[in-house]
């Protein structure tokens, strides 16, 4: 058990030691280790996405009394791979009236931003790629950059539907970033740190979801909106905007957007687990298994919401953020602050 | 002040939620609809002209292609119009079968309405549940006529085939399960706060406007006018059944939605009564093999279809084929209010408005 | 309370998540078809008495057949029967019209084909050993056909006349002989134009005159330009 728990940490140390023994400087070894870590993350993310997409299709199928993909491989597990191959081999279509540079870079920007989120996530005890002191802040600020990619896609497509989708996405992001930060602040106040590993360690005795139920609910709603997932999937809104910001995209570029969305989904679910559900802490299993398990359970809830609820109207969405979520989170902050002050 | 401009976008004819080939040229100020123009005709197949080159019997299968979601209703309207033209009356049993098939079609159409409204406002799952239940009606249609969606079962003067044995248990179990199905829709959709927020107070159509624009059917009743041709001017044997006319109050999208759910219940009531009272006996009246109505005779017959007042106007010149046939298509006339109720709303309301007006473009364009 | 509706909805979807699925796994699992299901329209050629009721009742001209008579009994027999399924509406009218129940709907519903012709079914009953009589003269050839023949003869004669003596032949449609000559020049030896004009001259003189005038005007314009 002990070996499993520290397997990856030991492995990393072994690599560094090995490199140093081969005569490399300590800094060089660290850099090589960092590159290996990034490569691992990219690999894990890709595999993870393939599973995720399959899972979402299965779950939505089951909810809708269908079987979901079930032809390719056992229970259709290879369906996503087949789809990916199909998308990769599709003709690369760039409409002639688009702003070519912006149109081309948007999906790349989007996927890079979503991959950057993983840098600060502690996947296990001492297993963050970079254990930033300002981890939470970093996560939020990088996460909000995703909107720029959507705006680029919408603007570069030179299509009115895409532009509407992009506009919606920006409006939604600006309104929901604030309650998101406020609800996370309450957690940070209790933990007394912006470092994610510290926050996880602060939940040794009790999960923050029990200390901060209000913050959790507001955070969850705001996170759904941030992720552009149903019932807040305004920018895409296929029944209204055909495909919103993605209307003009096809083939691999479209697949990149899709990939990035699921990458984001996993990152945010992992953040939820870290902030409210004790992150990698858990009995019996090694710590680096607990975080994915928790994240997956949270993702199932995201799926469940999306496949049940109708889409909210844009103005209700804004009103809900400014008139309900922000006051509630502010009040929650004040109460948390007072309680913390008197407990001291 | 920053200068802003309106943008014009074409919702349709190829758009996920325009129910076929509806094309709404929409002028938007951000998300607000400034103006809207409806363009029709993308599904035009000149059904009325086809009628002039087909005999009276041969035209029957084309009727289902008008309103393919409620297959038996237009067929019934046409057959009754021709029967009126010929002055024949049907045997009792045929009349009852007609009522049962017509009301089943109405339920099927309204179920599809609920489902398509659900998917149009983003609740994809609602669609699947409605289709699951509608499937049972389709099965019943297959039992009776061998076709599911566009079945030509009715004939001028009645039917050529009686209801099969397996039909009775199927319809019975369907009617027994119907309350549970409706419960499910109500729990999943009607009670949902997001859906209510989207449908309440949007797309309001006042009773005066509705009457002025000639709106009919559930859309009119949702505006608070209790007008149903089955009651106002009963055709067939509709005067024998006890049923209520559900009406709304405001005429907003929510009312249109709820009225249709309640109409499903009323239709089920009619079917139950019809099944109870249905006599045995003949199913086809004596109709000449070659139908040649009197020369110069003309007839207008209207029925309450699932979309509204569906009328058939037939002129005979004494030949085997109609001299002229006109269809008063409720979908077409109901669509006339779309700009009125959408102006000033949001783009997302427009989608809901189209869905709750429940147009069938096959009928609107003919 | 606000939110209870959403929770109820979530409850419903959660319940269905675990339920038995209703979809049919089509190629493996066959759909249940009811006896009256209308699949492919089929003919039992033995039962057919070549009465033609089906062809008359079909709204979409799906059905057609050819016939012949037996030499001895003078009975009509079917030589071929074509069902062009691509136009069929499965309306059952032909089946109801057939007096011998020779037509029926099978339960076959999988008929994808690569070519449109492949959707057609042609029945050719085995008639070997039977002495057939092509339908008697006049029985088959309708008055229409004769008229058509007559028209063709007339047109051919007219074309020959135009070629031989244009001035005289064409003066019937133009006002003066000069114009006729001019017209013949314009026509030159454009076969299709001559044929068109000849056809019109036989069937509709007035129209022919109009067309001739149009040709003339066109020719003059060309001249001026050139
Ligand atoms: S089913 Fe109808 S359309 Fe098809 S061949 Fe028979 S009469 Fe013609
Ligand atoms: S109606 Fe029946 S018997 Fe008469 S030609 Fe057609 S298939 Fe043959």
TrEMBL record, chain A:
Major location (coarse): membrane
EC assignment: the record states: 7.1.1.-
Reaction equations catalysed = a quinone + NADH + 5 H(+)(in) = a quinol + NAD(+) + 4 H(+)(out)
Q: How does it sit in the membrane?
A: Multi-pass membrane protein
Pfam families for the chain? NADHdh
Q: Where in the cell is it found?
A: Cell membrane; Membrane
Task: Give the UniProt record's GO annotations in the biological process aspect.
Answer: aerobic respiration
Which terms does the record give in the GO molecular function aspect?
A: NADH dehydrogenase activity; oxidoreductase activity, acting on NAD(P)H, quinone or similar compound as acceptor; quinone binding
Q: Report the superkingdom from the record.
A: Bacteria
| Bilayer-spanning residue ranges | 31-55, 101-124, 136-155, 176-194, 206-225, 254-277, 289-308, 320-343
Q: Which UniProt keywords apply?
A: Cell membrane, Membrane, NAD, Quinone, Translocase, Transmembrane, Transmembrane helix, Ubiquinone
The terms describing its cellular component in GO are: plasma membrane
**Record note on quaternary structure:** NDH-1 is composed of 14 different subunits. Subunits NuoA, H, J, K, L, M, N constitute the membrane sector of the complex.
**HAMAP family attached to this UniProt entry:** NDH1_NuoH
In terms of NCBIfam families, this protein maps to: PRK06076.1-2
**What does the function comment of this entry state?**
NDH-1 shuttles electrons from NADH, via FMN and iron-sulfur (Fe-S) centers, to quinones in the respiratory chain. The immediate electron acceptor for the enzyme in this species is believed to be ubiquinone. Couples the redox reaction to proton translocation (for every two electrons transferred, four hydrogen ions are translocated across the cytoplasmic membrane), and thus conserves the redox energy in a proton gradient. This subunit may bind ubiquinone.
- In which family does this protein belong, per the annotation? Belongs to the complex I subunit 1 family.
Q: What is this protein called?
A: NADH-quinone oxidoreductase subunit H
The organism of origin for this protein: Thermosyntropha lipolytica DSM 11003
Question: Gene of origin?
Answer: nuoH
TrEMBL record, chain B:
Top-rank lineage group of the source organism: Bacteria
User: Which terms does the record give in the GO molecular function aspect?
Assistant: NAD binding; NADH dehydrogenase (quinone) (non-electrogenic) activity; quinone binding
| Record keyword Transcription regulation present | no
Q: Cellular component terms, GO, for this chain's entry?
A: plasma membrane
Catalyses which reaction(s): a quinone + NADH + 5 H(+)(in) = a quinol + NAD(+) + 4 H(+)(out)
What InterPro entries does the record tag this protein with? Answer: NADH_Q_OxRdtase_suD, NDH1_su_D/H, NiFe-Hase_large
Q: Which residues form the NADH-quinone oxidoreductase subunit D domain?
A: 120-295, 297-366
Q: What is its main location?
A: membrane
The EC number of this protein is: 7.1.1.-
Query: How the protein assembles, per its UniProt entry?
Result: NDH-1 is composed of 14 different subunits. Subunits NuoB, C, D, E, F, and G constitute the peripheral sector of the complex.
Q: Which protein family is named in the record? A: Belongs to the complex I 49 kDa subunit family.
Q: What does this protein do?
A: NDH-1 shuttles electrons from NADH, via FMN and iron-sulfur (Fe-S) centers, to quinones in the respiratory chain. The immediate electron acceptor for the enzyme in this species is believed to be a menaquinone. Couples the redox reaction to proton translocation (for every two electrons transferred, four hydrogen ions are translocated across the cytoplasmic membrane), and thus conserves the redox energy in a proton gradient.
Q: What is this protein called?
A: NADH-quinone oxidoreductase subunit D
TrEMBL record, chain C:
The enzyme's main class, written as a single word, is: translocase
**Cited Pfam families:** Fer4_7 (PF12838)
Where is it localised? Cell membrane
Mention one GO molecular function. NADH dehydrogenase (quinone) (non-electrogenic) activity
Q: Name one GO cellular component term.
A: plasma membrane
Keyword Amino-acid biosynthesis tagged: no
PROSITE patterns, alphabetized: 4FE4S_FER_1, 4FE4S_FER_2
Gene3D superfamilies registered for this protein in UniProt: 3.30.70.3270
- Positions that bind [4Fe-4S] cluster 2: 58, 88, 91, 94
Its UniProt entry gives the catalysed reaction(s) as: a quinone + NADH + 5 H(+)(in) = a quinol + NAD(+) + 4 H(+)(out)
List the InterPro entries hit by this protein, alphabetically. Answer: 4Fe4S_Fe-S-bd (IPR017896), 4Fe4S_Fe_S_CS (IPR017900), NADH_quinone_OxRdtase_chainI (IPR010226)
Q: Cofactor(s) for this protein?
A: [4Fe-4S] cluster
The free-text cofactor remark is: Binds 2 [4Fe-4S] clusters per subunit.
Reported EC number(s) for this entry are 7.1.1.-
| Membrane topology (UniProt) | Peripheral membrane protein
Swiss-Prot/TrEMBL keywords: 4Fe-4S, Cell membrane, Iron, Iron-sulfur, Membrane, Metal-binding, NAD, Quinone, Repeat, Translocase, Ubiquinone
- Give residue ranges for domain 4Fe-4S ferredoxin-type: 39-68, 79-108
Summarize the protein's role. NDH-1 shuttles electrons from NADH, via FMN and iron-sulfur (Fe-S) centers, to quinones in the respiratory chain. The immediate electron acceptor for the enzyme in this species is believed to be ubiquinone. Couples the redox reaction to proton translocation (for every two electrons transferred, four hydrogen ions are translocated across the cytoplasmic membrane), and thus conserves the redox energy in a proton gradient.
Q: Which HAMAP family match?
A: NDH1_NuoI
Q: Which family does it belong to?
A: Belongs to the complex I 23 kDa subunit family.
Family annotation (PANTHER family): NADH DEHYDROGENASE UBIQUINONE IRON-SULFUR PROTEIN 8, MITOCHONDRIAL, NADH-QUINONE OXIDOREDUCTASE SUBUNIT I 2
Q: Quaternary form?
A: NDH-1 is composed of 14 different subunits. Subunits NuoA, H, J, K, L, M, N constitute the membrane sector of the complex.
Q: What is this protein called?
A: NADH-quinone oxidoreductase subunit I
């Amino acid at each position: 058990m002990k070996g499993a728990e520290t397997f990856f940490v030991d492995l990393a140390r072994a690599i560094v030691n090995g490199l140093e023994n081969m005569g490399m400087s300590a800094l060089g070894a660290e850099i090589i280790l960092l590159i290996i870590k990034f490569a691992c993350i990219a690999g894990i993310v890709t595999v993870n996405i393939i599973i995720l997409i399959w899972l979402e299709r299965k779950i939505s199928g089951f909810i809708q009394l269908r079987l979901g993909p079930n032809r390719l491989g056992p229970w259709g597990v290879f369906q996503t791979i087949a789809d990916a191959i199909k998308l990769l081999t599709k003709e690369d279509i760039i409409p002639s009236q688009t702003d070519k540079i912006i149109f081309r870079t948007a999906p790349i920007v989007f996927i890079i931003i979503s991959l950057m989120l993983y840098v600060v996530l502690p996947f296990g005890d001492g297993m963050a790629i970079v254990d930033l002191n300002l981890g939470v802040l970093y996560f939020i600020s990088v996460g909000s950059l995703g909107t720029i990619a959507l705006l680029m896609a919408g603007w570069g497509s030179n299509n009115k539907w895409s532009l509407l989708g992009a506009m919606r996405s920006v409006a939604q992001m600006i309104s929901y970033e604030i309650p998101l930060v406020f609800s996370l602040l309450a957690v940070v106040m209790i933990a007394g740190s912006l470092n994610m590993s510290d926050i996880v360690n602060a939940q040794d005795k009790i999960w923050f979801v029990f200390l901060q139920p209000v913050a959790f609910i507001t955070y969850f709603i705001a996170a759904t909106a941030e992720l552009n997932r149903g019932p807040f999937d305004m920018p895409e809104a296929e029944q209204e905007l055909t495909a919103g910001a993605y209307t003009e995209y096809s083939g691999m570029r479209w697949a990149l957007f899709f990939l990035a969305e699921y990458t984001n989904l996993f990152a945010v679910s992992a953040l939820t687990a870290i902030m409210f559900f004790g992150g990698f802490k858990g009995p019996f299993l090694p710590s680096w298994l607990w975080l994915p398990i928790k994240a997956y359970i949270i993702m199932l809830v995201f799926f469940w919401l999306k496949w049940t609820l109708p889409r909210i109207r844009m103005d209700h969405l804004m009103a809900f953020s400014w008139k309900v979520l922000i006051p509630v989170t502010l009040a929650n902050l004040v109460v948390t602050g007072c309680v913390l002050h008197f407990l001291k | 002040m920053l200068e802003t401009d309106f943008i014009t976008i074409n919702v349709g004819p190829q758009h996920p939620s325009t129910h076929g080939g509806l094309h709404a040229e929409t002028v938007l100020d951000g998300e607000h609809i400034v103006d809207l123009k409806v363009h029709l005709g993308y599904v035009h197949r000149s059904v009325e002209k086809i009628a002039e080159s087909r005999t009276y019997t041969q035209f029957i299968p084309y009727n289902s292609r008008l309103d393919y979601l409620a297959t038996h209703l237009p067929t019934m309207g046409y057959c009754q119009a021709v029967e009126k033209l010929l002055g024949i009356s049907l045997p009792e049993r045929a009349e009852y079968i007609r009522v049962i098939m017509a009301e089943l079609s109405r339920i099927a159409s309204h179920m599809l309405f609920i489902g398509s409204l659900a998917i149009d406002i983003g609740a994809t799952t609602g669609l699947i549940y409605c289709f699951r239940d509608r499937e049972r009606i389709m099965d019943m249609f297959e039992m009776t006529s061998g076709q599911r969606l566009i079945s030509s079962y009715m004939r001028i003067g009645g039917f050529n085939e009686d209801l099969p044995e397996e039909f009775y248990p199927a319809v019975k179990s369907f009617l027994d399960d119907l309350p549970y199905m409706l419960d499910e829709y109500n729990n999943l959709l009607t009670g949902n706060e997001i859906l209510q927020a989207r449908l309440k107070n949007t797309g309001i159509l006042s009773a005066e406007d509705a009457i002025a624009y000639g709106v009919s059917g559930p859309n009119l009743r949702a505006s608070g006018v209790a007008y149903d041709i089955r009651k106002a001017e009963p055709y067939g044997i509709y005067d024998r059944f006890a049923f209520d006319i559900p009406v709304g109050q405001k005429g907003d999208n929510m009312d249109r939605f709820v009225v249709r759910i309640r109409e499903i219940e009323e239709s089920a009531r009619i079917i139950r009564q019809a099944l109870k009272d249905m006599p045995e006996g003949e199913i086809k009246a004596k109709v000449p093999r070659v139908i040649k109505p009197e020369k110069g005779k003309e007839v207008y017959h209207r029925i309450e279809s699932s979309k509204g007042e569906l009328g058939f106007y037939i002129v005979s010149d004494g030949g085997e084929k109609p001299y002229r046939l006109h269809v008063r298509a409720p979908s077409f006339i109901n669509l006339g209010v779309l700009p009125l109720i959408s102006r000033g709303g949001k783009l997302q309301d427009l989608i809901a408005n189209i869905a709750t007006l429940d147009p069938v473009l096959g009928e609107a364009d003919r | 309370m606000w939110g209870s509706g959403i929770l109820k909805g979530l409850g419903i979807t959660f319940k269905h998540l675990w339920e038995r699925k209703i979809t049919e796994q089509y190629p493996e699992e066959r759909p249940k078809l009811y006896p009256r299901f209308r699949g492919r329209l089929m003919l039992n050629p033995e039962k057919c008495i070549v009465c033609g009721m089906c062809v008359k009742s079909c709204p979409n001209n799906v059905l057609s057949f050819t016939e012949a008579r037996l030499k001895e009994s003078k009975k009509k027999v079917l030589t071929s029967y074509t069902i062009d399924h691509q136009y069929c509406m499965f309306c059952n009218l032909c089946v109801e019209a057939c007096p011998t129940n020779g037509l029926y709907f099978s339960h076959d519903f999988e008929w994808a084909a690569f070519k449109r012709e492949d959707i057609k079914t042609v029945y050719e009953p085995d008639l070997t050993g039977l002495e057939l009589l092509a339908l008697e003269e006049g029985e088959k050839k309708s008055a229409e056909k004769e008229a058509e023949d007559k028209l063709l003869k007339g047109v051919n004669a007219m074309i020959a006349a135009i070629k031989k003596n244009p001035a005289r032949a064409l003066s019937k449609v133009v006002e003066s002989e000069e114009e006729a000559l001019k017209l013949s020049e314009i026509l030159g030896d454009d076969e299709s134009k001559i044929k068109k004009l000849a056809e019109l001259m036989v069937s509709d003189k007035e129209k022919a005159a109009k067309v001739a005038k149009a040709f003339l005007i066109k020719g003059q314009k060309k001249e001026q330009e050139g």
